[in-house]
Every structure is written in C-alpha cells, then in structure tokens.
UniProtKB/TrEMBL annotation, chain B:
The gene is nuoI. The lineage of its organism: Bacteria, Pseudomonadati, Thermodesulfobacteriota, Desulfobaccia, Desulfobaccales. Binds 2 [4Fe-4S] clusters per subunit. Keywords: 4Fe-4S, Cell membrane, Iron, Iron-sulfur, Membrane, Metal-binding, NAD, Quinone, Repeat, Translocase, Transmembrane, Transmembrane helix, Ubiquinone. PANTHER family: NADH DEHYDROGENASE UBIQUINONE IRON-SULFUR PROTEIN 8, MITOCHONDRIAL. This is NADH-quinone oxidoreductase subunit I. It comes from Desulfobacca acetoxidans.
C-alpha cells in the first residue's frame, strides 16, 4: 500500500511535468512553432524549471478571503485525484486494489473536484473567481449525466463495475469498435469534465482572468495545475479501460500498451483544444442537455435491446 | 427527428473537418527561425547599409575617392578622404558612414561613377551607443576580403597635412 502511494505520487508528478511539456509542444507544432527548445533536449526539462520557479514564489493570501476554505481548496481538489488511482488497472497485475465498485469510486471522487472549484472560487472573494466557479458547477453537473450514461452502456455489456473485469472482457476486440458513439460521447464529456477547451469556461482566460484560481499563487496554484493535468490522465485512463482495451495489445507488455493508449487519448484532447474555439455558456449547456444526454440515452437503450435480443 | 440527427451528423462532420486541418498543420515543418542558432540568408534585394564592392578582377574596391557620394548624400553622413598614390590615381584612406542618419535612399549608389558601392545584407544593426553606428567601409572591405580569401588591401596612410589642406580637406559636414 505504501509502495502504491509513493508510486502514484511519483506518477502524478512526472505525468504532470510531461503533459505540460507535451501540451506546449503539441500546441506549438499545430501553429508551426517549435515550442520550448532551450532547457534540455527540445525543452524537455522546461517544466521542471517552471515548477522550481513556482515553488520559490511567495504564497499570497489576499485580504478578506474566507481563510480556511481558501486554504483547503487546493488540497480538496488534489486528494480525490490521488484516490482515483486506487482502482486503475495499469496492467494485468499492476493495480493497487481491484474493487467491485471501481467505476463508481472513480466517478464519485471525480465529482468532488467540482466542490473544490466552488470552494476556491467562493473563498477567493473575487467576482471573476465566483463566476468561474459557478460556471464550473453548472458545467460539471450537466456533463456528468451523459458521461455516466455512456459508461453505463459498457457496464451493461460487461455486467461488472470492476475495471479489471471490463478490460478482461476486451480480449478479442476493443469496445470502441462496438460502441463508437459511446466513445465519442465519452471523450466529449471528459473534455468538459476536465474543464479543457473548447469547454474551458471556468477558467476562460480572455474573460475571467484565470477563473477560480485567479487569486492563488505559488505552490497552491501549482496544485490546481497538477490536479487539472492529473484529471486529464484519469479520464484518459478510463477511456482506455472502457473503450481501447486497457492493457491488451500485441508484442509490447501490457503496461506499455496502457500508457501508449492513455497518451493517445490525451493527445486527442489536446488536439481538440487547438482546433475548436471556446463555446458560449448557453451553447455549452444546450449541447449537454439537447444533444449529449438524448444521444447517450439512445445509445444505452439500443445497447440494452441488442443485449436482450442476443 | 430527422432534422435533429441531420444537425448532429453535419456538426460532427464539420468538427472532424476542423481536426483534419489542425493535424495537417501538426506535421508541417516549423517556420520559426531559432535566431541566434540559425540565421536566414537575406534576399538579394535586401538593403542593409552600403558597402564597397569587392571587385572580383582586382580583388579590391573600385573607389577613386571622388567624394561624389559624400556630396550627394542628403543626410551628409558619408565622409570620404582620399590620398593620391600617383599623378592620376586617388584612393580613399578613410570611408566612414554614420549609419544612424541613413535613410537608405540609395543616391550614393546611383551617383558613384565607378559603381564602387552596393547594399550589404547586414541585418544585425542594433548597437549600444551612437558611436557604434559609424561604420568604416575600408575596414569592412578587409573583412569581406578575408571572407572571400583574397589578399587584404592595406588602408593607405593619410597624406601629410599642410596648413591649407587642413582647413579645406575632405570635410563635408557643415
């Protein structure tokens, strides 16, 4: 268990450092720029330098903040992120604990991050932060529903909430082949759940400064950043487990396949960010309730019918 | 119902179209020049400051120190001082341009009877003081000769000044 905790913390840190570098590289190449090039090979340790700089920064607590809530928010956003790693099956054997309610555990803890964002926005005593937090709550509550329903169609097919069982059921073919609509819906909802563009309204930098983490500096800000990128890893890991066959794959060991697939999904999400413009707030909510939820329900009902007929 | 699904499908197709554009750009070569490490060659028509033409036949400049360029310069920033080497030939022992005043009009190039001047392709022209902008074209010519691998033209000694010459020598600036 201790080894698991240390491993997860190391993974979270390295993953965030790598993802920030990857994000900058992907965005740069899509705009015909080279991206960071100076620190290390092709800027590979640029994020290490940035992280060291962030650690050296002063922790500013603005006047009139709701002190305890303000201080607790970065921790509250980070803890559920760590806990989600508990049930992710990295390979056939590498899993901290296989629970029969693994899916529920991840989704329940993912929902907690909304609370942290609301806490941060409210406690900051800043109108932009509150606006960002309010948007985040409305968005995450809306997008959690289609997310759960799309995953439910997979759970219907497998008949288990355990992530290990779901991966094991994909030995012959990946579920993305039988459930392509669910995969697209899931990726869309996951992008919204992680507050990524084009659904990055909670931190829309051109209108809300930085949204809920405007008033945070130094390491507290770094925790929000870390949580955001780790959340990206988790939603991509779920996509891998549910749709892309987890550790299954020829030649390479399961762990390598798992990480390859996860980073492919992350690349997909980054690709979205540099392709699509940010949606307006009414478009965002309309999209969730009028398109994603009906489609997810239709997908679930059709899946149920086919399973019944078979 | 049909229009709803049609809208969803058309919207989805347009999203895929957008993503196709960005992934195409993702694999295109980078256009940024990593400046201090790599430099681009300037186009032939680029106008840096002027420089003396390195004549490929004589492997030196063609300036005869007639001072026409200095006289025609609207900003009067050219200083040419010549010295006679024999009864007919005169060569410059000093050719200075004060580049900070230059408007790159090109009149000096047009007026030159021997076509001894040309535009250089120098673009790193930032300096810390005004004095750094004064460019000695004869010294620059020596650099050009070293780059071309030909014999370096020594800069001639200034003529022994007499009292009369000192007052009216090649001083163009008023």
């Amino acid at each position: 268990m201790i080894a698991g905790v240390i491993g997860v913390i190391a993974l979270v840190a390295v993953n965030a450092l790598f993802l920030i570098w990857m994000e900058r590289k992907v965005s740069a190449h899509m705009q015909l720029r080279p991206g960071p090039m100076e620190v290390g090979w092709h800027g590979a340790i640029q994020t290490v330098a940035d992280a060291l700089k962030l650690m050296g920064k002063e922790l500013i607590t603005p006047k009139d903040v709701d002190r305890w809530v303000y201080l607790a928010a970065p921790i509250v956003i980070f803890l559920p992120v760590l806990l989600s790693f508990l049930v992710i099956p990295f390979s056939q054997t590498l899993i901290i604990r296989d629970m029969n309610v693994g899916v529920l555990l991840i989704l329940a803890f993912a929902a907690l991050s909304v609370l942290a964002i609301l806490m941060a926005g409210w406690a900051s005593n800043n109108k932009y932060s509150v606006l960002g937090a309010i948007r985040s709550v409305a968005q995450n509550v809306s997008y959690e529903i289609p997310l759960l329903i799309t995953l439910m169609s997979i759970i219907l097919m497998v008949g288990s909430f355990s992530l290990v069982d779901i991966v094991a059921a994909q030995g012959r073919y990946w579920f993305v082949l039988t459930q392509p609509v669910a995969f697209i819906l899931y990726i869309t909802c996951a992008t919204a759940e992680t507050n990524r563009a084009p659904f990055d309204l909670p931190e829309a930098e051109s209108e809300l400064v930085a949204g809920f983490h405007t008033e945070y500096s130094g390491m507290r800000f770094a925790l929000f950043f870390l949580a955001e990128y780790t959340n990206m890893f988790i939603v991509s890991a779920i996509a891998t487990v549910f749709f892309l066959g987890g550790w299954h794959g020829p030649f390479l060991p399961g762990l390598v396949w798992f990480f390859l697939k996860v980073y492919f999904v992350i690349f997909l999400i980054m690709w979205f960010r540099w392709t699509f413009p940010r949606v307006r707030f009414d478009q965002l909510i309309t999209f969730a309730w009028k398109i994603l939820i009906p489609l997810a329900f239709a997908n679930l009902i059709i899946t149920a019918f086919i399973l019944k007929l078979r | 119902m049909v229009s709803y699904f049609k809208e969803v499908l058309v919207g989805f197709a347009s999203l895929i179209g957008g993503m196709a554009v960005t992934i195409r750009y993702f694999f295109k070569p980078i256009v940024t020049v990593q400046y201090p490490r790599e430099k681009i060659t300037m186009t032939p028509r680029y106008r840096g400051h002027t420089q003396l033409v390195l004549d490929p036949e004589t492997a030196t400049h063609k300036c005869i120190a007639c001072e026409l360029c200095a006289r025609t310069c609207p900003s009067q920033l050219i200083t040419v001082k010549g010295v006679k080497v024999d009864a007919k030939k005169k060569v410059p022992w000093q050719y200075l341009i004060e580049y900070q005043y230059c408007s790159l009009c090109g009149l000096c190039l047009e007026v030159c009877p021997t076509s001894a001047l040309e535009w250089s392709n120098e673009y790193r022209l930032a300096n810390f003081s005004r004095q750094d902008n004064v460019i000695d074209l004869l010294v620059r010519l020596q650099k050009q000769q070293r780059l071309a691998g030909v014999a370096v033209t020594p800069i001639p000694e200034p003529p022994a000044e007499t009292e009369a010459e000192a007052s009216s020598s090649g001083e163009v600036k008023e």
